[in-house]
Structures are given as C-alpha cells and as structure tokens.
Amino acid sequence: MISQKNIFRTGSSFVAIVCLLNIISCNPGSKDTIPAVNDNSMSTEKSVSQTSTPAPTPKVDSATANANTNTAGGTHANASAQVVTIENMKFNPATITVKKGDQVTFINKDVVAHNATETHKAWTSPMLQTGQSWTFTPEKTSDYYCTVHLVMKGKIIVK
C-alpha cells in the first residue's frame, strides 16, 4: 500500500524539478550577459562593428497591423519589409539580408513574451507579448538576441 507520506514526497519533488526547469529556461539576462557569437546563423559574412547610438523609440503594433506603419528610421522609394517570426523559442529566419532603408518586422507567435536586442544595444524592441509586432529600419549589419531567452539569436545583414 502506498502511504500518503510517499505520495507527498514524490509530488513535491516533481514540483521542485518543474520549478527549477522553468527558472533555468527563462533567464532574464543582464547587461553583462550578452551572447558573443551568433551560432544559429548560416551566414559567413562578418558583422560591421557597431558604435554606441541611442536605441530608437519603438512603437508596438498588433501582428495584423500594416508592417510599414511603425518605422524607427528613414525609408527609401523602393523600401520593402522583411518579417522575422518569433516562434518555438527561435527567430525565423535566423538570418535575413535587407537593403539599406528596408524595414524589419518582428512578430511574436510564441506562447511567451520575447524581445530582440542588438548585441551592442544599438537598438532594442520592447517586450513583445503573443500576437504583438515591432517594426524598425536597421542601419547596419548586426547580431541580435532575446534578453529573456539567451539561446535565441539572429542576424540582420544590411547591404
């Protein structure tokens, strides 16, 4: 016969393990915890070195909003929009190539909140809840990551 005491021990051990895994998977990071290398990119091009510039003030739109309604930089006559979907704890595609002046829209289709932050803090999105999007115009090639989930990395190549 299984005693109530053994059930309680097994149940509380399970809860403790689940809590620990949850804490490990949702590391909030810090300004000192910046990934050095974009290891999920297939690009072989080198990143342009970044200078310290203030982060653009973002505007958060719903995922169904028009992608060109929220810009953080200038556009050119032939500007186009690129979309990066955040889903299953990944940026998809992990590497995109855009022309100077093109816009990039991040859409969070994951079940948890994420953001996108350039590794040298030149730009950062707000925390995007499920269904929210953020659009900006990148000025330089840059690596980026999610400050909440440090394993999530991506790269924007500006040509």
Automatic annotation (TrEMBL):
The keyword Metal-binding applies. Residues 62-74 have a biased composition (Low complexity). CDD domains: Amicyanin. SUPFAM superfamilies: Cupredoxins. Residues 35-74 are annotated as: Disordered. The keyword Metal-binding applies. Keywords: Copper, Metal-binding. Coiled coil: none annotated. Residues 84-159 form the Blue (type 1) copper domain. It comes from the Bacteria. Residues 38-54 have a biased composition (Polar residues). InterPro entries: Amicyanin, BlueCu_1, Cupredoxin, ET_Amicyanin. This is Cupredoxin family copper-binding protein. The lineage of its organism: Bacteria, Pseudomonadati, Bacteroidota, Flavobacteriia, Flavobacteriales.
